[in-house]
Each structure stands twice: as structure tokens, then as C-alpha cells.
Amino acid sequence: MSTNKTVIALPKGRILEEALPMLTHAGIEPEDSFFDSKDRKLHFGCKNRDDVELIRVRSFDVATYVAFGAADLGIAGRDVILEFDYPGLYAPIDLGIGPCRMVVAALDEHADEDITAWSHIRVATKYPEIAKRYFASRGIQAECIKLSGAMELAPVLGLCKRIVDLVSSGDTLRANGLKEIEHIADISAHLVVNRIAFKTKNEAMTDFITKFREAVDAPPSA
Ligand code: PRP
């Protein structure tokens, strides 16, 4: 990939839709095929400039592409940033998109159990590192079973006593007889920048950071 270009990693899905006005504010107008979900291309140009390339990847992978310098900057959830804890990643701006929370949840009937004396707990999660760190901070060793989705089923079917997952409305927990019992972190999407690119392409990176910050601070109608 050419080094005089800025490569931006963007997540697929809802976060991307909410980020579009911010991209416009930052002077990034993706080519039309970027918006065509049937297009199998993953690598795009911009309509208005040729110094920016866009890649469209899974939200979990944005942080990895940016941390290893395959992309210079991107938009990643704080859940993913916390999970990987990459030293090469700088997250200068909370974009306020996709607000939700990372929680510990359990079946209603297990929600009042006092686990403080436990030395070990089995946890189903998409976020094993966050879960391990959280329970370790409470002196409990978490045995994490990694799942990719539908975490709420795991306690219902007896796979574990706790799950660590994202909660927004709480509907999914309620619908499966689960209760939120501990709050781990507030989550939203952040602008992430590769630390080396921040040094070697400082002018371009600083310009993008300034524009994204302006977009966050702009009134909603602007
Ligand atoms: C997330 C999360 C919960 C759900 C919470 O899953 O893992 O399952 O949303 O939202 P709620 O509190 O508003 O019900 P997502 O829809 O991203 O799908 P996933 O199961 O594939 O992770």
C-alpha cells in the first residue's frame, strides 16, 4: 500500500451509518460502490480526493488493522480497544457513536449469589481478555469460553454462571431471563490512530483528528 496515502479502516454496519456525517465533515466522500452492500470489494477510493483509501472490515478487526499499521486510522468500538489493548493504537477521540455498556450478567435466579469468596468462575464472552482482567481485579480467576454471538444462551443452557457482553436496551438480557449485575465499562466508538503513522504522517493525521473533533463538537443539525 502506498505510504503517501492515508488508509482508513471502517467497520461495517450501524456504526458506519452513524459515522458517515463525521466522514463527510472530515472531507472523506467514499466512492459509490462503498455503499453497495452487494459489492464484494473491500477496498475503496474516495470521490473527492485520491490521497485517501478506505477499507471496510468487521468492527472487531478495525483495531487490528490500525494497530499493526495496515491502516493509518479507523473507527473502533471501545470494547474492541479494551479487549486487544494494543500498544500501537492511539484513541484520541470518543465519537459518541453506538453508546452501550459492557456488563456482567447472570440468570435471574443466580443474580444475587455472592461470588466474592469464589476463586474461579466460568464466563462465556466475546471478550475473554476484558472478562479475565475484570474478574482478576476482584481476585477471581475467570475461565473464559469464547463465543462469537448469542452469549445469552450460554447460562440458560448451563454452560456458565456469568456472561460478559455488551448491553444497550437490555431487551436481549430480559428476553432470555438474564439480569445485568455488574457494570464493567461504558462503550462507544472512538477514532483510532496508528502511533507510528501519527509520527510519520503527522500533518495528515493531525488534520483528520482536528476534523473529527469538530464533527463531534458540531451541533446535531450542522
Ligand atoms: C449485541 C450484544 C447483545 C445485544 C444487546 O449483540 O452482544 O446480544 O446486542 O443489545 P440490547 O441490550 O439492546 O438487547 P449484536 O446484536 O451485536 O449481535 P451478536 O449477538 O452477534 O453480538
Bound molecules: 1-O-pyrophosphono-5-O-phosphono-alpha-D-ribofuranose
Order of secondary-structure elements:
EHEEHEHEEHEHEHEHH
Question: How far apart are the first and last residues' alpha carbons, in Å?
Answer: 35 Å
Report strand %. Answer: 25-35%
Multimeric state: single chain
Fold blueprint:
Elements: E1 6-11, H1 14-25, E2 43-44, E3 52-57, H2 59-67, E4 73-77, H3 78-84, E5 89-107, E6 120-125, H4 128-136, E7 141-146, H5 153-156, E8 162-167, H6 171-175, E9 178-194, H7 195-200, H8 202-217
Helix pairs in contact: 1-8
Bound molecules: 1-O-pyrophosphono-5-O-phosphono-alpha-D-ribofuranose.
Structure commentary:
By secondary structure, the protein is of the alpha/beta class. It has eight helices and nine strands. A nine-stranded mixed sheet has the order 2-3-1-4-9-5-8-6-7, sandwiched between helices. A hairpin with a 7-residue loop joins strand 2 and strand 3. The radius of gyration is 19 Å and the shape is elongated. The model has no long low-confidence stretch (mean pLDDT 94). The site of 1-O-pyrophosphono-5-O-phosphono-alpha-D-ribofuranose has 11 residues, from strand 8 and helix 6.
How would you sum up this structure in a few lines?
With 222 residues, this protein is an alpha/beta fold. Helix content is 31%, strand content 33%.
